Every structure is written in structure tokens, then in C-alpha cells.
Amino acid sequence: MSIEVQNISKSYGEQKALDSISFSIKKGEIVGFLGPNGAGKSTLMKILTTYIVPDIGTAKVNSFNIETESKSVQKSVGYLPEHNPLYLDLYVREYLAFNADVYKVDKSKIDDVIKLTGLTPESNKKIGQLSKGYRQRVGIACALLHDPEVLILDEPTTGLDPNQLVEIRELIKNIGKDKTVFLSTHIMQEVEAICDRVIIINNGKIVEDKNLKSLVNEQTTQIITVEFDKVIVSDDLNDLENLVSITFINQNQLELTFDTTIDMRSSVFDFAKEKNLKILQLNQKNKNLEQIFREKTSKK
């Protein structure tokens, strides 16, 4: 396993940030770590990168214990914190050379990570002259300098514009072909585009941990929005199987919610034919990751 977390708890005074967290991540997985603000995401990432220690429990990264073998953990992890700590007055190559000295790696690695992260056109500029997207690339390049097996990325795309988002997502996805990636984000589309698996945390506890496709596909809620050519009353729809609720958008347009994994569009078409109705438009909306996240983390 690339990451093993066993019964980790961490408190700040009276506030419990993590409450007996346990999970493991296999080599080569890209795992999204999701949760609302204050759920404990950054705390766990700081523990896995040895910045802080847990109150209870332990973890291993690349088989190294985070407390007793912290130096080995640091050498085998690439970390991009939420607030990317860059020296804005340094040139890109100068900054990477400084970090190469820290990691004691050959300076030839600098050209490798510049090319890998798409920094070549900006590599001779001062970091302070770069856009937010290119600054994030510098942070990722720095995290890759020592060729770590595990990348831990805390909110890697915060503040990026739509074009930069796509570029950084593609970069992370390509890196994930050879490395284990553990990333936190608030952007559900990012997880859907990049990740193999999702771990959702709320109030310091894991509330979901599943393969992303399985998590979405197992959802039984199905919403169909349909517009008929005539006014319809709700009683007319009672014969539709698996129907759990009806919402009228207007007299002719409705939102039908079904509880089933069966595609109910054909049933709606059959219903319309039986009632001598014409369907003017029909759209199906299955539950997506954002809806699942909101259900799992909403205050009860």
C-alpha cells in the first residue's frame, strides 16, 4: 500500500478535527479527498506529510511510519499545500535549483520537471510575474523534483480560471499514470474528471469511501423532466412504477423522481402514448457526485 491510515485522531483544544480515521490507498490510485470546510482534510494531509503528529493512531506512507521514519516519508512524498509557498522574487529555474539542493537531487531533474509540468515557456521568468496557473505548475514541479512515489495535493486548482483548470487537471491525470495521487478539492467536476476513487469526510469522520463509478452508478434516485403538449394532473401519473414524487414546473412541465436503477424514460413514453399526449421535451438527470456529497455532509 502507498498510504495506510489507522485510527488517526487529532484535536485542537476542544475541537476534534479527525475522529478515528482509517483507510488505505494502493499504488497507482488517484483518490479524491472531499469534505466541507473544517472537515479535517488539511489536517490529515499535514499528518501524512509529517508537518504535525496525530494524537492517536498511526499512518504509513510507502511503508514508512510517519512518526518513527519521518525523514523517509518526506523523501518519498511530493506535497503541494493549499497555500503554495513560493519565493516570488526568485526565477523559476532558480527556485527549482534551490529545492533540488534541499532534496539533494541532480540539477538535471529541473529540466525534466519543467517539461513535464508545461513550464518551458515561462521557465526564465520570476515567479512573481507568473499567472496563478503557472505558479501552481511551479508548486507541482517542486513536488516532483525528487521523483516521489506519492503526491499529496491540497486544493491544487483553487483560484484558477476554466482554461487553467483543464490544464492542471490533465497534468495531474498524466502524473497519476505513474504515481499515487491523493488530492483534496471542493470542485466535484474535478474529482469526476480525474479520480478513480473518492473518500468523503465530515466532522472528522469518513462518511463514504468507494470507487467513483460504483458510487455514482449505485444511486437509485432518477429525475426525469418532461413537458407534455397538454395540461396534466398528478393523479394521472399514479400508474407509473417507482415514482416517489412529482414537482410541477408549470401546468405542462413536470419533474418526476423515481427510486430505481431502471431507465424510466421508456415508461414515460408509454404513459404519454396511453394518455394520448405528445412529449415536447424530456431530460433525464441521475444523481451526480455533487448531490451525493451534499447528502453525505449536510447537517442533520
UniProtKB/TrEMBL annotation:
<dbReference type="InterPro" id="IPR019864">
    <property type="entry name" value="Motility-assoc_ABC_GldA"/>
</dbReference>
<feature type="coiled-coil region">
    <location>
        <begin position="272"/>
        <end position="299"/>
    </location>
</feature>
<dbReference type="InterPro" id="IPR027417">
    <property type="entry name" value="P-loop_NTPase"/>
</dbReference>
<comment type="similarity">
    <text>Belongs to the ABC transporter superfamily.</text>
</comment>
<keyword id="KW-0175">Coiled coil</keyword>
<dbReference type="InterPro" id="IPR050763">
    <property type="entry name" value="ABC_transporter_ATP-binding"/>
</dbReference>
<feature type="domain" description="ABC transporter">
    <location>
        <begin position="3"/>
        <end position="228"/>
    </location>
</feature>
<protein>
    <submittedName>
        <fullName>Gliding motility-associated ABC transporter ATP-binding subunit GldA</fullName>
    </submittedName>
</protein>
<dbReference type="Pfam" id="PF00005">
    <property type="entry name" value="ABC_tran"/>
</dbReference>
<keyword id="KW-0536">Nodulation</keyword>
<keyword id="KW-0813">Transport</keyword>
<keyword id="KW-0547">Nucleotide-binding</keyword>
<dbReference type="InterPro" id="IPR003593">
    <property type="entry name" value="AAA+_ATPase"/>
</dbReference>
<keyword id="KW-0067">ATP-binding</keyword>
<dbReference type="InterPro" id="IPR003439">
    <property type="entry name" value="ABC_transporter-like_ATP-bd"/>
</dbReference>
<dbReference type="GO" id="GO:0005524">
    <property type="term" value="F:ATP binding"/>
</dbReference>
